[in-house]
Design goal:
With 279 residues, the chain is mostly helical. It contains 13 helices and no strands. It folds into three domains: 104 residues, MazG-like (Helix Hairpins); 79 residues, MazG-like (Helix Hairpins, Orthogonal Bundle), CATH 1.10.287; 53 residues, no CATH class.
């Protein structure tokens, strides 16, 4: 129920985290809240949570630092939304979320918050982190190597996580040459599937090729989601340049043809490389 203290907090521009929590509580109030917010549940909000995480990554990718604050706020609001719904069901409160995260970070950084030495490499710290996480999974009765890798992760990210888990128990190629050989093999199988198999079988072979590409990224220390985001941004940037060059000729892409656009693409690519050399 709204009261003067609640209203004062909601309209306090310096209200910080308590203000945001109260706003969320009021939005979900079954009598006075927002009908849309009241109707939501964990499953309907989850897609927005994923979307907001990607928008944070997008702002960082574009170095749009003026936008990042707002995008981080949107992502924080998703955590607040889920925590409010959990509180209504008697599952946990937002403070429990924060405390759980704090406990986890303290436990996973004994070289910072405990008595372990900080005198070790980042690679050794990563190995120690994985050892601690493995112990945590054992405590949760997750016995299988791949247990706990979230099914709802983006497929490319989940592929890398699955491969990392398998690699911990020795199920991994020793170097990138074996991965590259597998890519050639999977590419050939995809071509054969295109010519002779059903669409479902083509999709299966295509998935196999993507999975091996994710493995190559892992072996080469490349974050595949980030690499693909960068490739998307580069394609967008260069195609927009092609459109600009066509506009200078009084044309649009539909009034052009592949040969002309391909030539303009090469121009845009050369200009981009020259600009990088001048920096």
């Amino acid at each position: 129920m709204a009261n003067s203290n609640s209203d004062a907090l909601i309209h306090d521009p310096k209200g910080g985290m308590p203000r945001l929590l109260e706003i969320m509580r009021r939005l979900r109030d079954p009598k006075t809240g927002c009908p849309w917010d009241i109707e939501q549940d964990f499953s309907t909000i989850a897609p927005y949570t994923i979307e907001e995480a990607y928008e944070v990554a997008d702002a960082i990718e574009r170095e749009a630092w003026d936008e990042l604050k707002g995008e981080l706020g949107d992502l924080l609001f998703q955590s607040v939304f889920h925590a409010q719904m959990a509180a209504e069901k008697g599952l946990f409160e937002f403070d429990d979320v924060a405390d759980t995260m704090s406990d986890k970070m303290v436990a996973r950084h004994p070289h910072v918050f405990g008595d372990e030495s900080r005198d070790k490499s980042a690679d050794q710290q990563t190995k120690d982190w994985e050892t601690i996480k493995a112990a945590e999974r054992a405590g949760k009765a997750q016995k299988g190597t791949l247990d706990g890798v979230a099914v709802g992760l983006p497929a490319l990210l989940r592929a890398v996580k699955l491969q990392k888990r398998a690699a911990r128990v020795g199920f991994d190629w020793p170097d990138t040459s074996h991965v590259l050989d597998k890519i050639v093999e999977e590419s050939q199988e995809l071509v054969e599937a295109r010519d002779d198999l059903t669409q479902a079988e083509v999709e299966e072979e295509f998935g196999d090729l993507l999975f091996v590409m994710a493995n190559l990224a892992r072996h080469m220390g490349v974050e595949p989601e980030g690499a693909l985001r960068s490739a998307n941004a580069k394609f967008t940037r260069r195609f927009e340049k092609v459109e600009e060059k066509l506009a200078d000729r009084g044309k649009s892409p539909v009034q052009s043809d592949l040969a002309e656009m391909d030539a303009l693409w090469d121009e845009a690519k050369a200009e981009e490389k020259a600009a990088k050399l001048r920096k």
